Amino acid sequence: MTDAQPTPRLPAGGGAGLSDAARPTPSAGRVAPRLLGYLGLLPFVLFVALFLFWPTVVVVVGAFQDADGHATLQNLAAAVRDANLSSFVWSIVLSATTALLGAVIGGLLAWAVATGRPDSLLRRAVLAASGTLAQFGGVMLAFGFLATFGFNGLVTLFLHDRLGIDPFASGA
Fold first, then answer.
1. I need a labelling partner for 41 at 20 to 30 A (CA). Which of 26, 104, 109, 156 fits?
2. In a domain, 69, yes or no
């Protein structure tokens, strides 16, 4: 029927006739494929090391050095004085406020979608908006902000050219 070759059998005694060099060991042939499986992580590890860890190390080390490269705590003391401290406080207040508003509004919308009719307009609108807005973050958000409000942004040029208002006149 088929031309299959018979499988070779070990001699009686469980391979006692094999030399030690020919006898398979339990870990032989397993280490290389296991390590080879991690080779796919190499580009990611290099990317993280180059663009996350290295800049972090440079910033942290630089925070404790003066202009000559000597160790100092003056940079940290300057960071929590006057305008810098006020900027930190307002940044934290803004972050907490937007996080709280997002949690409350998102929670209410999620509740409305989960308990509402599956074919309702609200459900379709929320799901469509969520899918679209989820893609608009990071670099795309930064680009959108600059294209709208940057030096040559749509709103900036409209204010300057049509209304005679220069948003950067007070020194930006």
1. 26
2. yes
